[in-house]
Amino acid sequence: MTRSLLPRLSLSVLLPLSLAAHAGAPVAAVRVTFDREGIQSRQAHGVADRATGRAVTADDPVRVASISKLVVAIGVMRLVEAGTLDLDADVSDQLGWPLRNPAFPDTPITLRLLLSHRSSLTDAAGYYATPLDGQLKEILDDPRAWDGAHAPGTFFRYTNLNFPLVAAVMERATGERFDRLMQRLVLAPLKLDACYNWDTCSAVSAAHAVVLYDADGTPVKDDNHGARPACSVVPARDGRCDLSVWTPGTNGATFSPQGGLRISADGLARIGRLLLGDGQVDGVRLLSAASVRTLTTPVWTWHAGNGVAYEEDGSTPGRAMICRYGLAVQTLATPGSDCGDDLFGDGVARVGHAGEAYGLLSGLWIDRAAGSGVAYFATGVGGSPPGRHSAFSAIEETLARGATAPAASE
Q1: What is the predicted pLDDT for the residue at 5?
Q2: Using CA atoms, how far apart are residues 275 and 293, in angstroms rounded to an integer?
Q3: What pLDDT is recorded for position 384?
Q4: What is d(CA 201, CA 368) in angstroms, rounded to the nearest whole number?
Q5: 218-253 b/e with 16+ CB inside 10 Å = b?
Q6: What average pLDDT values come out for the chain (410 residues) when binned by 10 residues?
Q7: Which of helix, strand or coil describes residue 171?
């Protein structure tokens, strides 16, 4: 995607004074609205890099955290449409080793269960720090990786580990490195200068990376000084970063499928427009309408006892935050007083995904009935104050709704 020549617009009007004065106010905040035809507005405020003072724009790539999962699912559905993968086949056949919950050894685990967080896996044994020359299977051999109380398919637990396994299945089925495969399947056809980790992004994109900061203002991710990092993956056990040791399906965590997508807010808007267009955007047909329905239709709806309604690896909300989930797609505004997923506060069942990691909050949400959507992110907002009408933070409510959003202190 070519970098926009449109001027930046201030986002300061979207951030109530009570938030702007708060210690957790964003270092950078970007909000883009769109419909089926294109982008309707761009707003940006703050800096992409405090060290240089470079102003953030809607074209700058940022690590969008768990929105990465939604884009992985689009890649999976492309392979399903091609007949390369089957959502309901035992993934053990692709992995080359049995993936089984030790407490339920006769229950197969499928891509549909992995993508919808109903696999019975947990993040308690880790999910991302596997060294470049390591094997993902080593994590699965740890009993802490499994929920021994719930069989696959019976319980929802948002688990990042599901997606390195999805990536491993994709690699084994195609023989292609995950980051390059995602370029071929999704990013290149949509003309997006985006990447999982940094190796397949252009030098121009890498030079405009948005730095992520913790609550103390310390850079924690992508402080790359205008270039690709020397090593964008977890190094091998001897410290080397030689990607030639990659073997298909051995270490699906290498390119961070669960959260490592670097993409701009404009790029997220194009992903949203693809979903609004039932698999087509700007004349490019990437998915069938049936595949989009498969992704966005909830396969799990929360009620007490059938799942954990928030990400255990993130901040713990006061109310249920994830109440309906499809294949890497969340549905908002679930009816019921016990659910706090009405981010926009208007009862509209938007679909998309949120992200939270390394002091960043992000979101991509579409209203299919209205044909519109919003993509946003804010950096340096770890520990931001809670929202007024949902289990999301006040900053997320503000960025989702725009200038009409109330401050949390009102």
Answers
A1: 39
A2: 9
A3: 86
A4: 30
A5: ebbbbebeeebbebbbbebeeeeeeeeebebbbbbb
A6: 43 46 76 98 98 98 98 98 98 97 98 98 93 94 97 98 98 98 98 97 97 94 94 95 94 97 98 98 97 98 93 76 97 93 97 97 98 98 91 96 47
A7: helix
CB contact at 8 A, 366 and 351 = yes
Using alpha carbons, select from 89, 96, 93 the residue that is nearest to residue 110: 89
In the block, tokens 């190796």 appear at 199
**Per-residue confidence (pLDDT) for residue 314, from 0 to 100:** 64
Please give the model's pTM, rounded to 2 decimal places.
Answer: 0.94
Are 362 and 65 in contact by the 8 Å Cβ rule? The answer is yes
Contacting residues for 283 by C-beta, under 8 A, at least 6 apart? none
Q: What's the DSSP call for residue 159?
A: -
DSSP output for 112-129: HHHHTT-SSB-STT-SS-
pLDDT value for 215: 86
Contact 75, 69 (CB under 8 A): no
CA dist 134 to 100, 107, 234, 338, Å? Answer: 20, 27, 10, 42
pLDDT at 239: 94
Q: Which two tokens stand for residue 233?
A: 């993956």
Determine phi and psi for 289, rounding to 5 degrees. Answer: -60, -35
Residue 15: per-residue pLDDT: 54
CA distances to 31, 93, 368 from 267, in Å? 12, 34, 19
Q: How far apart, in Å, are the Cα atoms of 278 and each of 63, 285, 289? A: 26, 9, 5
Instruction: Please state, in angstroms and rounded to a whole number, the distance separating the CA atoms of residues 192 and 238.
Output: 34
Closest residue by Cα to residue 114 from 136, 132, 90: 90
Spell out the residues 6+ positions from residue 355 whose beta carbon is closer than 8 angstroms to its own. 64, 65, 66, 67, 68, 259, 361, 362, 363, 377
Residue with tokens 């294109």: 38
DSSP state for residue 187 in the 8-state scheme: I
- Structural tokens at position 183: 């370029």
Residue-wise DSSP of 303-331: -TTSEE-S-TTS---SSB---EE-SS-EE
